[in-house]
Amino acid sequence: MSQTLERSRYEWNTVNWRQVEIRVFKLQRRIYQAASRKDVRLVHRLQRLLSRSWYGRLLAVRRVSQDNQGKRTAGIDGVAKLTGPQRWALANRLSLTATAQAVRRIWIDKRNGTEQRPLGIPVMGDRAGQALVKLALEPEWEAYFEPNSYGFRPGRSVHDAIDALFKVIAKQPKYVLDADIAQCFERINHSALIQKLNAPAWMRRPIEGWLKAGVWDQGNWFPRTQGTPQGGVLSPLLANIALHGMEHDLQTLVQPRSYLLNGVRRRAVPLRVIRYADDFVVLHPDLATLQAARTALEHWLKPLGLELHPRKTQIVHTLGASSVPTGFDFLGFRIRQFSGSPQRWRGGFKTIIQPSPEACRRHRQQLRQIVRAHRGDTQRLLIRRLNTSIRGWRRFYRTVCSRDCFSSLDDYLYRLLMRWTQRQKHDGSSHRQVAHYWGVDRGLGWVFCTRDGLALAQHQKVRCQRHIKVRGIKSPYDGDWLYWAARWGRYPGLSSKLALLLKRQLGCCAQCGLVFTWSSLLEVHHSNGCHQDDRLDNLQVLHRHCHDQAHGAVRLRSFRTNDNDSPAEEPCEVKVSRTVLKPSGGGNPFA
User: Fold this and answer.
1) What DSSP character marks residue 64?
2) Residue 580 above 60 pLDDT?
3) Half-sphere exposure of 503 (CA within 13 A, CB side)
4) Which of 234, 207, 222 shows the shortest CA–CA distance to 103?
5) What confidence tens digit (pLDDT) does each residue in 129-163 have?
6) Cα–Cα distance list, 421 to 262, 411, 415, 431, 434 (Å)
7) What is the 8-class DSSP label of residue 244?
């Protein structure tokens, strides 16, 4: 190997990624703050600085060649995996002035099994360029996006959208326009998107090149005049930009009037739109207002080249109405309200959110396929594969009313595994065969487990925990390290130990229970008084005054212990750890 390749490999493997992420995040935070102040000139200057920075190029290459799940999917050039020297060389030559190459189209099956979705896979160089543009463009638009937009945004998830929907309908039943945009990514109008983007020329030109690059599909080249290719790094952000302003414009176009509810005239309330990428719902208690909103929405989408899917768009009611269906499925959840006694349920109804029947059906099918694929394999291999699927599924749905669904899934899996047990070859009676794979004779009950203690995870053996929705327009780029560390357990530039402690304490002081604020002085407290014991179980984050009180109580106990007839020992002096964590530079500890 040449000396240049050996040196580049060494350099890539010794990059200080913590420093890289901190430096890039500092620029992104400044972009977000400038965009919040509507300082467009400063935003464009900082974006240009980030796109030309060495740290930005390093991070962009790492995300597309190491972090991304599709890092081994090749474009039209056949490059599917990069080595260390190749990554280093790509970061050196990465530029936004390069000509965009065509994308490779592959087709994947949709969940319904009857349709296919096209994916456009760019070459590795174009992916790195899109990742670099996204690093500079995303913080700006995070300052503009509406609070009820949750899809493909940092710090937001499906559970945030579901909890927002619950809060809208919890106090009053509503009509719901359950809408879906037909082929959203493939039909977005390029001109309308670029005009809405309002980017500087040096950024607009490469984006237009990626949008208008042709498509290679099974050896044939096709031009592209509309849409953003699914599979590109920048496509989700561009789709969010195209659909930005939907809720604000609908509230402007549709002026709700007062309406009758149970014979009582109610005052007008605004429309509510909750959107996750191209799936969204519009909510209002009046059916006529919602029908007018559907018409206005169709006109709003037309300049973008989009239209509502006629089969997947419907109007329903959350509690029940004579003219429309009751309940609906949204993002894999079933949302419905049930009427009952006003003495038992406030308002005479209760909102129940559960895993959708289609999601349960797909999970059952996945479990069945796993068990069938491991016929003849060892029990250990089967348990490990099932546990991966079960733990991920139950973690996703444990935030809603899933107890009955979990119980039925465990019953279904019990029958599958009992048939698997009977098919296994075993010398002995059927009772001994069952006892070999189940813990019934070992005092464990009907638990599918190995002899050395590896047990199958059960759906209902999980503690249900309600998800806490992201607050308002909060964004990870706003620099509120207290909020995001307590929410995530991590934050750029913050020690992982402190962030994890803040998450475990839910952002509250372990002594007084009050929530930490911007002006709080934080200190790390050792519970057992030993400052050499830095185990997480021994550490707590306290206010400075609470820390003083905690150590004052220890001193007081020491004096009281020595207050007796025997010669008193000298009271042990407790040293107070002054690890001050006061935020600086606008609330960021590393600004």
Assistant:
1) I
2) no
3) 15
4) 222
5) 999 999 999 999 999 999 999 989 999 999 999 99
6) 58, 15, 10, 11, 7
7) T
Beta-carbon contacts of 192 under 8 Å, excluding residues fewer than 6 positions away, are 242, 303, 304, 305
**CA-to-CA separations, 88 to 11, 98, 508, in angstroms, rounded:** 8, 18, 43
Dist CA 450 CA 273 (whole Å): 50
Tell me the two tokens of residue 450.
């190995």
pLDDT in tens, 397-420: 999 999 999 999 999 999 999 999
The answer to whether 151 and 250 are in contact (CB under 8 A) is no
Confidence of residue 588 (pLDDT cuts 50, 70, 90): very low
258: amino acid identity, one letter: S
Rg over alpha carbons for the chain, rounded to the nearest Å, is 29
Contact between residue 211 and residue 165 where contact means Cβ atoms under 8 Å apart = no
C-alpha triplet 208, 51, 88: angle, nearest 5° = 105
Residue 492 main-chain phi, psi, to 5 deg? -60, 130
How many residues are recorded in the chain?
591
Is 13 in a helix, a strand, or coil? helix
Does the pTM surpass 0.90? The reply is no
Q: What distance in Å separates the CA atoms of residue 237 and residue 240, rounded to the nearest whole number? A: 5
What pLDDT score was predicted for residue 294? 93
Which amino acid is present at 537? D
Contact 535, 505 (CB under 8 A): no
Q: Which of 18, 34, 31, 157 is nearest to 493 (CA)?
A: 18
- How would you classify residue 101: left for phi > 0, otherwise alpha for psi between -120 and 50, otherwise beta? beta
